[in-house]
Automatic annotation (TrEMBL):
SUPFAM superfamilies: GST C-terminal domain-like, Thioredoxin-like. One of its GO terms (biological process) is glutathione metabolic process. It comes from the Eukaryota. InterPro entries: Glutathione-S-Trfase_C-like (IPR010987), Glutathione-S-Trfase_C_sf (IPR036282), Glutathione_S-Trfase (IPR040079), Glutathione_S-Trfase_N (IPR004045), GST_C (IPR004046), Thioredoxin-like_sf (IPR036249). PROSITE patterns: GST_CTER, GST_NTER. Belongs to the GST superfamily. Homodimer. This is Uncharacterized protein. GO terms for molecular function: glutathione transferase activity. Pfam families: GST_C, GST_N. Residues 8-89 form the GST N-terminal domain. It comes from Exocentrus adspersus.
């Protein structure tokens, strides 16, 4: 008598160039789960179809569907993947103090670093605006904060790779390909190289995909 165990599939609606989508790809690699990749062409409005809006009323990517659970917001997805499928707690420690530090760095990326980058860069690329020097200074201040966090720390939230590093490296790599000079931030540069070398599947999940974002930027800004 044979017993068949159904393998659950995690559908992942994404755009490869997107930093939040790349952060989820990095988390999946680190946790060790496979995603059923569903490329979602925003330019064609595939995120606005009735079928997708039924899954995610906010019609944003990244979005996952896992055994009936629909979830969006990249950091929430990353936490879920680790909590549901992680083999240990190294990426997202169970200890309340250690986890709190990871959470702080995740929220720093969401509310400060990635926010400052988007506020400075996206109106220019997608809206045809001019670069705002004040917004550039705000972005540099955000990178400087990260540099300070890393003064006495190998990784963003301690001495081990965590989810915080994966979301932050997706943002920093995006900032890098838009030609902001990161060389003044020595701690960030050291950490960036370390994460690129130690994050599982870095090149497949983030390295090659950030170049897709760079190509998109070049196409949109071509005179």
């Amino acid at each position: 008598m044979f017993c068949f165990i159904a393998k659950m599939t995690i559908d992942f609606y994404y755009v490869p160039g997107s930093a939040p989508c790349r952060a989820v790809l990095l988390a999946a690699k680190a946790v060790g789960v496979e995603l059923n990749l569903k490329l979602t062409d925003l330019m064609k409005g595939e995120h606005l179809t009735p079928e997708f809006i039924k899954i995610n009323p906010q019609h944003t990517v990244p979005t996952i569907v896992d055994n009936g659970l629909a979830l969006w917001e990249s950091r929430a997805i990353m936490q879920y993947l680790q909590n549901q499928y992680g083999k240990d707690d190294s990426l997202y420690p169970a200890d309340p103090k250690k986890r709190a530090l990871v959470d702080q760095r995740l929220y720093f990326d969401l509310g400060t670093l990635y926010s400052a980058f988007g506020d400075y860069f996206y109106p220019v690329v997608f809206g045809g605006a001019s670069y705002d020097p004040a917004k550039l200074e705000k972005l540099k201040d955000a990178v400087k904060f990260l540099d300070t966090f890393l003064e006495n720390s190998e990784y963003a939230a301690g001495d081990k790779l965590t989810l915080a590093d994966l979301t932050l490296v997706a943002t920093i790599s995006t900032i890098e390909v838009t030609d902001l000079d990161l060389s003044p931030y020595k701690n960030v540069a050291r950490w960036y190289n370390k994460v690129k070398a130690t994050a599982p599947g870095y090149e497949e999940a983030n390295g090659k995909n950030v170049l897709i974002f760079k190509q998109l930027v070049q196409q949109l800004t071509k005179k």
